[in-house]
Task: structure prediction
Amino acid sequence: MEATIEVTGLHKRFGTARALDGMTFSVLPGQVTGFVGPNGAGKSTTMRVMLGLDAADEGTALIGGQPYQSLRHPLSHVGALLDAAALQPSRSARNHLLWLAHSQGLNAKRVDEVVKQAGLTSVARRKAGGFSLGMRQRLGIAAALLGDPPVLIMDEPFNGMDPEGIAWMRGFLRGLAAEGRAILVSSHLMSELQDTADRLVVVGRGKVIADTSVAELIAAASGDRIQLRTSARAEAMTALANAGATVAATAPEVLTISNLSPERTVAALTSAHVPFSEVTAHRATLEEAYMELTRDAVEFKAQATS
Amino acid sequence: MTAIAPYRSAVGPGRDGFAQLVHAEWTKFRTVRGWVVTILVAALLTVGVDFLNHSQCGTVINGIQVGGCPQAPIGPNGEAVTDNFYFLHKPLTGDGTITVRVTSLAGLYPPTGGVQSSPSGQSPLAGLKPGVQPWAKAGIMIKASTAQGAAYASMLVTGGNGVRMQYDYTGDIAGLPGAASAASPRWLRLVRNGNTVSGYDSLDGAHWDLVGSVQLSGLPKTAQAGLFTASPSYTVINQSLGGGSGAGGPTLATAAFDHVGLSWPGGALAGTSVGGGGDAAAGTGAGGPFNGSFRQVGTAAFTVSGSGDIAPDVTVAPDGNGSNLTQTLDASTFFGLIAMLVIGAMFITAEYRRGLIKTTLAASPRRGRVLAAKALVIAAVTFVTGLIATAIALPVGAAVLRGGGNWIAPVPGLTEARMIVGTAALMAVASVLALAIGVITRRGVAAVSATIVLIAVPFLLVIIPGVLPAGVQDWLVRIFPVAGFAIQQEFPAYHQVLGNYAPGFGYYPLAPLAGFAVLCAWAAVALAAAAYLLRRRDA
Result:
């Protein structure tokens, strides 16, 4: 029970706007849980409610079975990275971690440990105002790890990181999950979470749309779809539509076909003398799976795009 | 998915008691160089402003003080006093009783203008109009000696405050009300018993009421006893923005005594002008007829004329001497305080601006304690800084005043301690008030502006003479946080000395601790509002 987040029926309004509309899900230990949704879906608000920063109108958010307000030395229960830019520019990184440590009864020795863990040893005594975006994210992670908590909550930690940074972060988070911690990572870009998350909670308009493992989501989204590569797109679309398939143009020379088996696809194309170079069973990217979830079903678009 | 055992930390859980919160807030403060520098600047301003004081007394020629600043004599309790009057007296050895009946007390005063430097032949009394001062005094006195500042006890009638027993300059007890006249005379009696002197009054000379009984420590066996008359100077001050003009000058009172009875044998009564000598610049009276005189008009009847006051030395009274340290302290406190108010507000608004408040409140969800820890750290920092700065600024200010030829009346050690510690406390509480306003507004500019308007602007309006009418000024200094400056008041306002008791000259309507309590109340209310808002609002 210790390393778990349980969110049940959260409702919250900001004026007339409904930010949370019955948000319910759990974050379990030993895995990375991705928290995805478009901007304005309620991800940051949910995280703030979890940390006791915002009050929900209804519903509960419990960490290890307790509300945040009742946690003693909370940083040893939950480490959070909400806003990497939340720094006093004239204060050094090490001093930022130092006051945070002091508030939990921890000392400078612990600060130096997390500085090393986050790879900031060479810049720790520099003013935080001069940090690059990537360094700020690492500082935020160091702050989250200060109390060595079993639960970590991170709001868009990949934002603004270069590919190297993203790779580092990905490996880091997976390593933390492997230690048995519960990790909640939010993002509005699927590509970041691919290969990082084990589980996905997809949210939109303040509520959970899907709560499943990444593998299941991709499998469901892939369905029995076929990917076709052809230079004569317009002709292919017509031929296949006539055969009863649903076709979508997903890339300049690529069509995604559903409702038709691969054999019949090939038959329809050859009888219409449409040249093609590739027919493969399609594996959706997380991006596509997500798009499918949050938008209406793919429609036939019979227009030529050059 | 394989089940993984939940994570167990090897690092200890830590503690998050109030002590840890305070430690964290202190670390926050000391690690921002800008804030530490600003506090040091506050200290420097507090001391530095003293050196801008250019008030001069007398003239310094070639480094030598010429035409000095008068020094007041010192009374039996170590305080500066004014002691000028005409004394018709003779020695009293051992115990004795002196009785008298007063049938009138009249006076002359200058309605405008000072003592005319008269062309030869014309009396300085020309141009004075009839009218007795409310605190003109005439009666009987037993005094240790005729030296200025010697201990005494007296029974007297006043121009407008009835019969009173006054002693040792600060002592004042009310007796029969109303003025003495031929139709309604006043009988006065003093009885000396060792070091104890008792005063009695009566309307008919038969039935006597005890007004008071005082111990005059160190009263010598042979003291001086007799009749006296004094009349304090008259001033009209026109205060306007940027300056004021005062007009007035010495006054003269004449009393008619009869039924004079001294219970001990001895020689005749002799007249002495105590503090007289005619050297206005040296504070020894206006000279000439203002030295006083007497006439015997019957076997036991005299008229006695005199000028001057027998009272504590009040710097803002027309007969007062000396400089008031409160004025110096006010100026230096003000500038140091502004810097501290800015820090107090910014200590919290900087967190809102940078979004750090989320980090703080996630680390310490018990928000009331966070506010308390912040307030404690700011209060401690400003108190210690203010204490050191003021402890230096006060003597420095005094030295600068003396360097300009000014004389500073002696201040009891306890009073000076109260001024120093009180100023530090004033700075601390005001900074906490600024912190609370910062929580309420959440924005630095709004918080600093609100604090300046609430604390600094009333201060300026009240300290600069002539800006506000007296009634408004009085109300402002009682109600607004500026009331806290009362803790700096150096000398009490004495009701028996008329003077310009204005905040600009170091006098506040509330007692020192009462004024400070008003400031504390403001801070307490603001903190309560801040705690409420901090808890209720989303971070």
